Amino acid sequence: MNDQSPGEETCGVDELIPDVDEPLAVGQVAALTGLSADTLRWYERVGLLEGVARDPSGRRQYTQKDLRRLALLMRLRATSMPVSEMLRYAELAKVGAPTELQRRQLLEAHRDRVLNHIADLHRDLDVINRKIAGYRGSQAPAVSA
């Protein structure tokens, strides 16, 4: 994903990934992110994470830029964006500035789904809270008159 839109240098995802001064190997990135090395390699293989540099021995060397892109991918997956949409976003990002509107629309549609899911969870939580309150009320000490 070569996402160079205005304001997207950090996109609010950097809190997932600390700053690094030197490139990291796949195992280091796996330990840092909690993703498996296989997942990191798969992200690259399918085109979600492109341009990861290699050292002279051919081992992946993840830069801060790679880590920022990875952090965005992690947020998108954590909010249940389908891989097919992540791939579409990555394809659009490769094209660059001419696709900013399409990328924004894709993210807005995803945001709307996330907000709907949050609203559903709030309704579910309300039901659970009412049930808990009902149990608390039924366990109140008896008052004698």
From TrEMBL:
<dbReference type="GO" id="GO:0003700">
    <property type="term" value="F:DNA-binding transcription factor activity"/>
</dbReference>
<dbReference type="Pfam" id="PF13411">
    <property type="entry name" value="MerR_1"/>
</dbReference>
<dbReference type="InterPro" id="IPR009061">
    <property type="entry name" value="DNA-bd_dom_put_sf"/>
</dbReference>
<protein>
    <submittedName>
        <fullName>DNA-binding transcriptional MerR regulator</fullName>
    </submittedName>
</protein>
<feature type="domain" description="HTH merR-type">
    <location>
        <begin position="26"/>
        <end position="92"/>
    </location>
</feature>
<dbReference type="InterPro" id="IPR047057">
    <property type="entry name" value="MerR_fam"/>
</dbReference>
<keyword id="KW-0238">DNA-binding</keyword>
<dbReference type="InterPro" id="IPR000551">
    <property type="entry name" value="MerR-type_HTH_dom"/>
</dbReference>
<dbReference type="GO" id="GO:0003677">
    <property type="term" value="F:DNA binding"/>
</dbReference>
